[in-house]
Design goal:
34% helix; alpha/beta; 14 strands; seven-stranded mixed beta sheet; globular; five-stranded mixed beta sheet
Length: 315
Amino acid sequence: MKLRRAFIASCCAALLPLLSGCRSGGIPLLNFIPLAKPVGMLLVTDTPLESADALIRHEPFRKAFSTELKREVHLELALPLLLEPQLGVGWQQFALVSPAQYAALSKPADFSVVAIAGESADAASRTAKIVVRADSELQSISQLRDKVVAFGPAEDSRTFFAAMVLLESEGVSRNQLKRQIIPVPGSLLHLGKPEEIARSVASGSAAAGVLDDSYWRRLPERGVGDELARASFRVIGETMALPDRVVLGSPKVDAETVQKTKDFLFAAGKKHGSALAEIRLGGYAPATDADVENMRRLASVQGLFPSKPKPASEE
């Protein structure tokens, strides 16, 4: 299986710059045939080499979507730079993106937020906790200047982007955080797993850490020995709530297809739970105005989206 995934990853990484991405479930040329055209959906990834197996994991979802829609659904792996052009002209009807990828769009209002997804349909959005050791002298986020803060992965919407929005709102900018020497000199501390973040705070190698609320709730109240537990930490801040994934709609897609897609997505948690479990989701829900506003706020952090055009009022 590892060899198979490595082979698929290599193929996708090689083809992404040349084509529009890796495709699952059909042939792009079918879009030109004026008969029961398939529905195209982009699966946007920041790291194609590591995410190439996403097409495999999304296959049960794709099949269920095709069955419910009574039309073939194509899934295509693509880099963020392909999102706006393909969705804008209607080459693809939908896209699966992260909140940060949505915030990075030059004109996010041009695309409809069809649905958001998270642990369940009833809790599609959630927060992250900024924690310090229980015995730490730090009492507020404003005291994190010149301190090491352990964030989640650099592309993570909740444990990095939303955390930076919170820090900046409390007067702490990226440039005021203590930087790392290794592995990349001058970088912030990014850790791939929540356990690593919690351990770094517990050991004192980081003054504070950003823990996804999903992980925080799984921690026992009190641990045994060196077991991580909520009692070992103190929460000094909480980020805004964000979903795990966002389904965007092209401005060119027809209203009937959008409605059928919503019907499928909003019922998927109950009807196709195993398919969603493969992609680490529990359910889809309609996006509220607060959800959309929170996602757009991610673009307010200076330097996180260097290629994003400035609003006309700032030029």
